[in-house]
Automatic annotation (TrEMBL):
PROSITE patterns in the record: GLUTAREDOXIN_1, GLUTAREDOXIN_2
Taxonomic superkingdom: Bacteria
InterPro entries associated with the record: GLR_AS, Glutaredoxin, Glutaredoxin_subgr, GRX_bact, Thioredoxin-like_sf
Protein name, as recorded: Glutaredoxin
Annotated organism of origin: Candidatus Phycosocius spiralis
Family under the similarity heading: Belongs to the glutaredoxin family.
Signal sequence coordinates: none
Lineage of the species this protein comes from: Bacteria, Pseudomonadati, Pseudomonadota, Alphaproteobacteria, Caulobacterales
Domain Glutaredoxin stretches: 4-63
Length: 84
């Protein structure tokens, strides 16, 4: 199963929703709290071009934010990425 990297901030309902879905699927998640760490947030922004939370990678594939993850799940696209 592919590793998941998710850039988050504390008390973010979108982060919690994304993590809940990925945990339900049995994903191994590396949670990187970036909101209070300017250097980590800058790296996230450089990698994604976005400054909102969460930002999700499944393996080497950039998924986007929570809404992007949910849209991908609705199309059946999350499981194949996790299986890679």
């Amino acid at each position: 199963m592919a590793n998941v990297t998710i850039y988050t901030k504390f008390y973010c309902p979108y982060c919690e929703r994304a993590i809940a879905l990925l945990e339900k699927k049995g994903a191994t998640i590396t949670n990187i709290e970036a909101a209070t760490k300017p250097d980590v947030r800058a790296k996230m922004n450089e990698l994604t071009g976005r400054n909102t939370f969460p930002q999700i990678f499944i393996g080497d594939t950039y998924v986007g934010g929570c809404d992007d993850l949910m849209a991908l799940e609705a199309k059946g696209g999350v499981d194949p990425l996790l299986a890679a």
